[in-house]
Amino acid sequence: MDAAVDPDAMLMLAYAHGDLAAFEALYARHRGMLYRFLLRSVRDPHRTDELFQETWSRVISARARYQPQAKFSTWLLQIAHNLMIDSVRRQRPMADGDEAETALANVAMPEQDQPDHTLSEFERRRSLQRAIEQLPDEQRTAVLLRLEQELSLEEIAAVTGAGRETVKSRLRYAMNRLREVLSE
Amino acid sequence: MTTPLPPQDPREPDEALPGEAELAALYRQLPQNEPGPALDATVLRAAAQALETQPAVPVERRRAPREPGDWVHPKPVAVTPAAPAGSARKLRPRWLVGLSSAAALVLAVGLAWRMHESPRSESAPVASGSVAPVQAEAATNAPMPPAPLPAPPKQPPPRILAAAPHAPMAAKSRQAVADKQAAPVSRDEQQLAGAAPRAPADVTRQASNEIATSATKPAVAEAAASAPSLQSTMVAAPAPVAAAADTATSASDTPTQELDKIRLLFAQGHDDEARQRLAAFRHAHPQWELPPELQAKLRKP
User: In this structure, is residue B190 part of a structural domain?
Assistant: First the structure.
């Protein structure tokens, strides 16, 4: 992708030339989505904080060599994904059960108008969260990148290092599983 | 892990998966977790500090150091490095100097320990018979010759002078063999030490004198020959057992040890026996390349 097309890439280049405000704008645009991707992938708030900080640290240290060949968000997620894989290899056990649920639900829910509807939607969201947690790692990552980041199959393939058809297959399996859980 | 390049831009239209819209809508209702203010502050502070400490400048392609496992950074841009890179380069020699100094110190201490330990372990079974202690004592005596030196000393016997350079070699080779075959050598030396008391006393005394003089430098040998004082007797005292013990034939001797013993026999004046053993050695080890001085001895009957 051309740098002129991607505003994030322009911000990154500006930061590489010493513009701190550009980095602040870039950070503000991507902090939420990156944090959620990490939190829902590793399901551990402490490790999420570490990985989040480490990801941005890599971005900062790589600013001088950054070349806008693709969307900045894809590159950022690629860094985060690789760090996450390394982290999972280092410490295999993940947070699960109550800890993960607490971590994922510690932010206020969107308000709904009707109480009955709120309860039903809450149960559905909780089921979706649990179903995503129980997916295999590769499928969960693909689903998160698709649903949270709205990446294309090619972009997910680039981030995860898998082939396009592999990503498509993972997404099919994962979404079928999520639909099954929600329909139960 | 390899360094991933930023992926290519997907331009093809992406197909929607079945049921994706419903899942996406439900997913968007999930809690919108975000990093805390402290985390935000940490990241923004790191970004600011990076600009303050080292202004970002592109570095030359392929010449920027890449840490092991550094798969994050994309390929560097082809621009000449700037001054701040030099400061990082200046730090490296300090680190290298410290590391190399420590390594050299460890190596020196290890070598000194090794050299200090080897003669002690070798002489332990032979007690007073080894040549190495004699050398050590002679060396310690060397800086303190008798003060009133008489007239210029006579020319020492040529065989002593000829044998003198070989004594350290013999000691070195014995140390090397002792390092490699600690157990067999110590057993040999015990056998040799056991055989030593059978040697006649006068012969051993003469041999010990010669070993003592041959083991030291020529100046010390001259001083010892010209003024046979208490020092020389002290130096020579532990040698008799060693002289007989070190030249005795042993089936378990390595070729190097056997050659050392032959040299020792030449040094002691037992030329006939030495030549016989040298001939036997040559017969037993025809491929072994003899040192030039022993080849000369072998040729001259």
Answer: yes
Which two structure tokens, joined as six digits, stand for B168? 């350290």
Same domain membership, residue A59 and residue A4: yes
Whether A175 and A145 share a structural domain: yes
* CA-wise closest residue to A133 among A97, A106, A160: A97
Question: Which of A62, A95, A128 represents a domain boundary (last residue)?
Answer: A95
- Whether residues A40 and A86 share a domain: the answer is yes
CB proximity B18 to A under 8 Å? yes
A51 and A23 fall within a common domain = yes
List the single residue in B with minimal CA-CA distance to A125: B30
Question: Does residue A58 share a domain with residue A20?
Answer: yes
> Could you give the ipTM of this predicted complex?
0.76
Is residue B230 domain-resident? yes
The distance of B132 to chain A (nearest Cα, Å) reads 56
Residue of A18, A39, A86 lying closest to B56 (CB–CB): A18
Task: Judge contact between B82 and B76, C-beta under 8 A.
Answer: no
| Structural domain harbouring B265 | 125-136+155-299
Give the whole-angstrom CA distance, residue A140 versus residue A134: 8
Number of structural domains in chain A: 2
**Among candidate residues A95, A125, A157, the one where a domain is terminated:** A95
Q: Are B123 and B241 in contact (CB under 8 A)?
A: no
Best B57, B72, B79, B80 member to test A by mutation, with max A CBs in 10 Å, is B72
- Which CA distances in Å does B177 have to B119, B252, B291, B292? 12, 12, 18, 22
User: What are A85's two structure tokens?
Assistant: 């894989």
Q: How many domains does chain B have?
A: 1
A21 and B CB contact within 8 Å: no
User: What pLDDT was estimated at residue B85?
Assistant: 41
Per-residue pLDDT of chain A (184 residues; tens, 9 = 90+): 454 578 899 999 999 888 899 999 999 999 998 999 999 888 888 999 999 999 999 999 988 888 888 788 889 999 999 998 888 777 755 555 555 555 555 544 454 445 555 557 777 788 888 888 889 988 999 988 988 888 889 889 988 888 989 999 999 999 888 888 888 7
Q: Which 20-39 residues of chain B touch chain A by CB within 8 A?
A: 20, 22-24, 26-36, 39
- Residue A79: the pLDDT is 92
Domain that holds residue A20: 1-95
pLDDT at B73: 53
B52 in reach of chain A (CB within 8 A): no
Which residues of chain B, if any, have pLDDT below 70?
Answer: 1-15, 54-93, 119-246, 300-301
Exposed e or buried b per residue across A171-181, where buried means at least 16 C-beta atoms within 10 angstroms of its C-beta: bbbbbebbbeb
